[in-house]
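Q: Hi! First time asking for a complex rather than a single chain. Here are the components, and I think there are two in total. Is that enough to go on?
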Amino acid sequence: MLDQPQGVSIGELAARLRRRECSSRELTADYLARIERHDSALNSFITVTPEAALAAADAADQRLARGEGGPLTGIPIAHKDIFCTQGVRTSCASRMLDNFIAPYDATVVSRLNQAGAVSLGKTNMDEFAMGSSNETSWYGPVKNPWDTTRVPGGSSGGSAAAVAAGLCLAATGTDTGGSIRQPAAFCGITGIKPTYGRCSRWGMIAFASSLDQAGVLARSAADAAHVLQAMAGFDPNDSTCADEPVPDYATNLNDSPRGLRIGVPREFLSPELDSRIAAVIEQAIELLCQLGAERHDISLPNSALSVPAYYVVAPAECSSNLARFDGVRFGHRCADPIDLDDLYQRSRGEGFGTEVKRRIMIGTYVLSAGYYDAYYLKAQKIRRLIKEDFQRAFAEVDIILGPTAPTTAFALGAKTADPVAMYLNDIFTISTNLAGLPGMSVPVAPVAGLPVGLQLIGNYFAEARLLNVAHQLQQASDWHLARPTEQKLRS
Amino acid sequence: MPWETVIGLEIHTQLKTASKIFSGAGTAFGAEPNRQACAIDLGLPGVLPVLNAEVVRHAVRFGTAIGAEMPECSVFARKNYFYPDLPKGYQISQYELPVVGRGQVDILLEDGGLKTIGVTRAHLEEDAGKSVHEDHFGAGGLSGIDLNRAGTPLLEIVSEPDLRSPQEAVAYARKIHQLVRWIGISDGNMQEGSFRVDANISLRPAGSDTLGTRAEIKNINSFRFLHKALEFEIERQRDILEDGGRVVQETRLYDADLDETRSMRSKEEANDYRYFPDPDLLPVMIDGDFIARATADLPELPDAMRARFAEQYGLSEADASLLTNSLAMADYFEQTAAGCGDARLAANWITGALAAALNKSDLDIADSPVSPAGLVGLLKRIQDKSISGKIAKQVFDGLWVGEGNADAIIAARGLKQITDTGAIESIVDAVIAANPTQVEQYRAGKDKVFGFFVGQVMKQSQGKANPGVVNQLLKDKLAGS
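A: Yes, that's all I need. Here is the structure of the assembled complex.
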């Protein structure tokens, strides 16, 4: 097993830091050393910031010495390279932004800084968050710590792999169609994508604005609760950020699941699903029922439409959001343009990778005159139907459960030639983004030595409930404690 | 064949706000390039727009002023195109659901009649930046971008194709210009680009009710140019049509130096803007309360005020219209009328001497060196016959150049009217004695000569003799008494 404090939670570490049993500087130095030792095999970081991390650790130690600080003070974390960080390169894993240093912090970053979290650096991802395998990064693919011949999932694959391999205690991620939950499932960790609008999108480089949401990848629901607590809440800089009070996520973690109504959509546990995955999902649901929850079979009849609708809406928005990367003001600019069109064409042609270009082209097409009604408008109608499906379901149940992904982590390169096969890996996660609902993935029993994720979907702003149910499951099982062995990491 | 001209205008008016429509950066004109552009205006990765509520308030005030329907919900959309001065690769504008719906304004025609012009919609949008080309950087072939204007709030006011001549188009544009300044939502400064007009124009056979193919003339920044551009374009299109040709739908540019319009791009080259609702901004919900608060301090509107002026003060439509050209003008008039108690006298002086002087110095009424109180001081001396109307003009000139108040000027320049009959009589006698030929002519029945005597007496008295007394005395004396 990796030489990391097994099973030590953020809460427990915070207590040790407060008792001065160790310092944040020691902890941070440990984690930096672990990155140094293991990340060449994983490629989970794009940028590591040791000096800034140690400085932040020292600041945290001073706060702790004064008896100040909260549960995140002095805790080493990492940020997906989609979050702008003042003075530190934010690349979005694209050649386009290889040289971009933002003059501001994303709100999520500044809130975690204020909470005293220590950022170790910026994690790898699919380029502009477009991908389900982390193979579209300009900085090369991330490897799954459970099997380095396999993908970690995407797009928050660097964050997932870093947390799974114990290179940080938690990491930020973003989820547009499953980009937190699917890599969390593939890497055997806990990931939560809150309600759309729960966390500010300010300073988070946009992929598809109406779907993007910041969230957390951590080793347990309890750890995720601490991190989300610091990130969530209203931000006047983001008009779509919800002005809703943030409950204290930690206080409700121990509520009993007795009487909890669990909805299991028949579309999610269909006969086509890999029977081994179906079996471990059923096992987890059964465990919750043993704890007092009631199972209800439900239907989300329009869920089959979610992938096609998503692959209209998300590219449409991305084609517009990525238009600003034109070589004029920042980012990559081609050498010696002969005129304006040449400047645009070559800067964008050189700066963007294949998957990003594919989605920009799709998005441009579905928004163009003559096709808007047939594609974009139709997709928005499907989106409404999907929301209505969920609202009907939440009239009957408190939480919806199912698999996070239809497969375990697949081999590097297995789906790169078939974008549609890649898109279908997000089939169970996409509908919550279309509806704006919170979703979570927690590890259940592995299949053939590879992690499997159970997905929990809640009603709007029901993050506390998701974290509570996930925590109860993790109190009653030890799936989330499994760690990739060091041997696997070096194979 | 007789042709009918069909014109519709799109007017971009810059809204008067301290900060931009979606960012906190300032909007002052003339700042050093890129000093008033923040990360949001530059479209840096990760930044998000937040709507400036003041901009919506201004739009609502305009909507109320033109009696428009105001939808409860309006939506911001992205208009996508690439241009170096458009930082995000899209302009945030409104498309399907504008903030101001259908309304109308009345324009005064040259024959004195009124015509109602439909306003299709008015929508909010952000301005783009400005490209600065070779002439700025020398011959190096470099271009620069100034993003100070990027994100400046604009209200685009779109008319129905109800205008039938360049005169009507100018009257409509002036009306909108008057209105946006009147209600305080824009300074309307055309030199600074705060008020710009795009004109759509087509011709059709008189009596036809289908529209002809139109050309759009972009970015006209003066009423005079609007008139000239439309005249040129009517001629151009008529020539094409009368030669049996077809007008092509295209965007044209008016070149004021050559007084012609030129093709900018054809319909085929036109962008597909790929409008869609901006997912970074929520729909704007406007309720009755917001409208009530936004419009609570709206001044009496110009049409109502013009009607009231005509009615209350017995002014001609033309004078009432001139005096309600701007709120400042109307205020000036009402203060002056109240001060002197004679509205028509006040109107005559304001539309006459004052308007001419302002015009000559290219000054706005708000910057007039003669205040309403100053003018009242002058008018009072006319009313009490201390000075004649003619002398009053000299006093006005003194007021204009700052020689003090009317009384001081009259005293200093010795302009007080002579009403003393004895003094006038001696001048009259002298004039009659000096001009025996004319006396004879007059007495022979040539009444016209009377004016000559009046002129001579006024001249002798340096204009200060009371004309009534002069007339009476002359009449008496010439009659041979």
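A: The mean pLDDT of chain B is 92. Let me know if you'd like any chain examined more closely.
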